[in-house]
Amino acid sequence: MNTQKVDFRSIPDEGVTWTLLGTLYLRAWESRLPAPILGDRYAAEVMERIDYDFDKLGRRLRPSGNQFLVGLRGRQFDDWSAAFLARHPDAVVLHLGCGMDSRMLRLDPEHRLHWFDVDVPQVIELRRQLYQEQGNYRMIGASVTDDGWLDAVPGDRPVLVVAEGLLPYLSEPEVRGLLRRLTEHFRTGELIFDAMAPWIVRMVKVARWGPHDGAEVERWNLRLTCAEEVSFGEHYRRIPVRRYRALYRLMYAIPLMRNMARIFRFTF
Ligand SMILES: C[S@@+](CC[C@H](N)C(=O)[O-])C[C@H]1O[C@@H](n2cnc3c(N)ncnc32)[C@H](O)[C@@H]1O
């Protein structure tokens, strides 16, 4: 990691780009708990390097217990990713909408895998000031909705595609197009993403797409098989603070709440 402070103050206080600062802040906060769920110590290190009013952001985000949701979600993504990579040490990893997440440091600290972090050009420009390309690690500044950027990625190996907190911000045709390009480019692999239920999408200003279930995505793209779909709250027992554990247990018991945000694992 580089060492000088990077100016993020130009990022507006709302909108999709802002959300990457929210998830980074919450992961850093979660990592400081005595018994964290994800425990992403790199998030705290990266945050230290960013010039931004994180206190203001924290006042907006933390009181509702979002740090546990981000911890639970990140844990599920990392666990499924690690299981795939253990079975496919020759895999290519595509981490879409990576923001400032340090997943490659958590899962591939030696940079052995062919790992590509992808986000829009403005975000990758900032990311390059915090992280360095080294070993087989590369960053691609492109919208995942564009054609062309996949040409830089070898298609002849099994692929792990990870999209955490990305697909809700795309439209349905954009998601369909992305999934089609991925399954055309790679012969085999896994795709892990999270999504909100359609009724939540209607309530969240910046959200645009959410599936009813995994079968809906299978119907669009016949190469994809939904292997697992779990609620964000699936592992609520791991929440280390009693009142939030009780709150998430209650939400988990109500199907409408349990299914409002889910994580999907597809194989192809
Ligand atoms: C909620 S943040 C999640 C960031 C990261 N995955 C994390 O968990 O911290 C959403 C990310 O998706 C990125 N994003 C949104 N639309 C995109 C697009 N069309 N192409 C690539 N990245 C996009 C944003 O720039 C942002 O970094």
Automatic annotation (TrEMBL):
Keyword Transferase: yes
One GO BP: methylation
Keyword rRNA-binding: no
Protein name: Leucine carboxyl methyltransferase
Keyword annotations: Methyltransferase, Transferase
Domain of life (superkingdom): Bacteria
PANTHER family: S-ADENOSYL-L-METHIONINE-DEPENDENT METHYLTRANSFERASE YKTD-RELATED, S-ADENOSYL-L-METHIONINE-DEPENDENT METHYLTRANSFERASES SUPERFAMILY PROTEIN
Molecular function terms from GO: methyltransferase activity
Coiled coil residues, start to end: none
Pfam family name, one: LCM
